Amino acid sequence: NAGVTQTPKFQVLKTGQSMTLQCAQDMNHEYMSWYRQDPGMGLRLIHYSVGAGITDQGEVPNGYNVSRSTTEDFPLRLLSAAPSQTSVYFCASSYDRWGAYGYTFGSGTRLTVV
Amino acid sequence: KQEVTQIPAALSVPEGENLVLNCSFTDSAIYNLQWFRQDPGKGLTSLLLIQSSQREQTSGRLNASLDKSSGRSTLYIAASQPGDSATYLCAVNTGNQFYFGTGTSLTVIP
Question: Taking residues B64-93, what's their average pLDDT?
Fold first, then answer.
């Protein structure tokens, strides 16, 4: 089925560890993005990409890195995990940056940093 | 910065009732607005997408309206059912990203 696939679904990290959250889409969407969702704060944009080789920062980029080597994949890297990064992470994609046909979301990665 | 507000934060209604969820945004320079549904512990499911040039969109028992000049959108749910219980999020696209509200948690009581 066409859509956005995120792995893993759950992860527990120790403070200081690093990891990569994977995101892949098979809809040939140019635009991909990462959001984090925290209670009472809504979804906030971490990083986004408007095409392969092009990335930019969102509202809350500190502590995260991204790259976009292919149209399909947009991994999110946590360099040195901190308890403040405990959150639910969502990857989203769309045909273009203006969301002309709407956004499609993955099912999320629930991350706990202890 | 765009601010999106959803009122009420929580709503409980008996089954069969018609209801309205509200969304307001501070900057009217948007490309489109999208309503999502989120079930507990799950991802976001798109319900309706309204382009900035449109006034409303309908899908089944759902109708969403957009008044861009006043910075408001409403989601109307007709004949509510227990399966409609979820959190409803609105998001506005200003180019490069969606800004989200914090959602309305809806409970439909059988």
Answer: 97
